[in-house]
Design a protein that fits this description.
The chain is of the alpha/beta class. It has helices spanning about 5-10, 25-35, 55-60, 70-75, 90-100, 110-120, 135-145, 165-180, 195, 305-310, and strands at about 20-25, 40-45, 65-70, 85, 105-110, 125-130, 155-160, 185-190, 200-210, 215-220, 240, 245-250, 260-270, 275-280, 290-295, 300. The protein is built from ten helices and 16 strands. The strands form two sheets. Strands 1, 9, 10, 11, 12, 13, 14, 15 and 16 form a nine-stranded mixed β-sheet that branches. Helix 5 crosses helix 6 (about 110-120). The protein starts with a helix and ends in a 16-residue tail after the last helix.
């Protein structure tokens, strides 16, 4: 990936911010592909950590329904956004909070979920029945047929983890459309893998140390804060710098804790004050970070917010940088 224009921008950037979120068009291209293969099917995505409001606005602009399963994310949502409430952490207070914000569509898997919601809201809610890919078409048909809700019926037919799975779900959806009543609306949840390389993070080197010939750098973010979501997963960050001369180095977060290790590997030689790029950062918690866009020529899109850049939905005129991080 040619990152020269990105680094030129940050080298001349006059800002007190040491860490910034960059949005590529990886998400844009994925959504465009899925929409073309599954017309009329609602797309759902649950942001696990990335709760930047510009990003949430962008999801709405792309007509992606936001799945919300926690109060923290709920507090960042507005009535203008399409939202379905997940039931993984369902509590009475969360149900009431969601309803108070105008969100009354709940994604349910089990009858006890429905009972819990009914005990709080009575019949003042709608539900989307959620199924896994392992459940057969016959199982779904039987379940929908015996569902107590006969109006505003919606079902989620599984989670799409990659474009390679698109053919399987497409065949399944076409079969269901043929066999289900025409008033049943279908949706698919987009898995986290789609969003893994959607973001890059530009962060500034705030410290450098060479000990026994081993170089370690410190950046102004942390595995215990922005990257906390990665602690229980195998980290797979890509790193980019201006330098072509690389060496095996360590990259630490800003807490000073030796456990705050972001990555070890080949890193281009940099000094304090230089910027580096971290790719595959789609699960980072970016609530406190500014988000900027890159155009097809690798330049920062200054006048447009993310939602404005996609104001015409999937308009290729405003497509962003393709990133293969």
């Amino acid at each position: 990936m040619d990152t020269a224009a990105i680094f030129t921008h940050f080298d001349t950037l006059n800002t007190e911010e040491n860490t910034v979120l960059l949005l590529s068009n990886h998400l844009y291209q994925t959504v465009s592909k899925v929409w073309s293969e599954l017309p009329g099917v609602k797309l759902v995505y649950e942001p696990l950590s990335v709760q930047n409001k510009d990003f949430l606005d962008l999801l709405s602009t792309l007509d992606i329904t936001i799945k919300c399963s926690n109060q923290d994310l709920l507090d960042n949502l507005t009535r203008k956004q399409g939202v379905v409430i997940g039931t993984s952490n369902l509590t009475t207070s969360f149900i009431k909070s969601a309803f108070a914000k105008g969100f009354n569509n709940f994604l349910t898997q089990q009858s006890r979920d429905v009972l819990k919601i009914t005990n709080v809201l009575g019949n003042e809610f709608s539900q989307t029945q959620e199924f896994s890919k392992e459940e057969t078409t016959e199982d779904i048909l039987e379940n929908v047929q015996h569902s107590s809700s006969q109006s505003d019926r919606q079902i989620c037919v599984g989670t799409l983890q990659s474009l390679q799975e698109l053919r399987f779900l497409k065949d399944r959806i076409m079969d269901l459309k043929w066999k289900l009543p025409s008033d049943v609306r279908l949706s698919v949840e987009l898995g986290q893998e789609f969003f893994q390389s959607t973001f890059l993070i530009a962060t500034k080197i705030i410290g450098k140390e060479i000990l026994d010939g081993q170089t370690s750098y410190t950046v102004d973010m942390s595995m215990f804060e922005e990257f906390a979501c990665y602690l229980d997963t195998e980290t797979n960050f890509s790193v980019y710098s201006r330098s072509d001369s690389t060496s095996h180095c360590s990259l630490y977060g800003n807490t000073g804790d030796e456990e705050d290790l972001i990555l070890e590997g080949e890193i281009g030689e940099v000094d304090t004050g230089y910027w580096i790029l971290l790719g595959n950062a789609g699960l980072a918690d970016c609530r406190g970070l500014d988000m900027i866009l890159l155009d097809k020529d690798y330049r920062v899109v200054r006048p447009r917010s993310p939602s404005q850049a996609f104001s015409n939905s999937l308009d290729l005129e405003f497509s962003l940088l393709t990133v293969s991080a």
